[in-house]
Give the backbone structure.
Amino acid sequence: MVTSLIGLALLVGIAFDTKVVRIGSEAASGPERFSAETYGPAEFPKVRDAIAAKAVDAPVLAAAIAENKTAAAEKYGVASGGTSVLPVSFTGVAGEPKAGIYTVTVPNMPDGVTLRVQTGPAINGTELRDATGTIEFGQFTNQIEYQDAGSALNNAMKAEVLAPIDTKSLAGKTISVTGAFRLVNAKNWLVTPVKLTVQ
């Protein structure tokens, strides 16, 4: 009798805790899987606008970094992986490219500071993912998805910003760039653009 009552109680408990899911319903499909193809185009405009809103004129930022690198990083940047990612904007003349990277001569930059912008075809780094501080590891299932999110943003940027431009023939031209770079070497910046126009 006692065994029967326990069994009945278990069945009642299971019935209350069971959710019936119809085949083909949204619940049956489980959590939505990460898609780099949709993530990049959906999120890049937000990243672009956030970086543009906080971008600091390159000579101003360079002077702040020269005065106090740590203070400049805290004031203008977002902490990321033991470094900081800083938003920047500048207009200058592009030099000769090396592997899709142009050194840009910008007026009023301090002596000894090299400013470069990457234009592809390969866009390296996770500056776009990390520049806003709003995209975090905990939003993804694992490290692979987190890395894929960075690549997806880079690819979306290439499609929107770089694809309409002949990036192989910028040498000698005046370009205006808004983007972000990781502050590793205060004298050598490698900027990932979110806006790039040729004058």
Summary: The helical segments are 2-17, 26-29, 36-54, 58-67, 69-76, 127-130, 143-162. The longest strand covers residues 83-94.
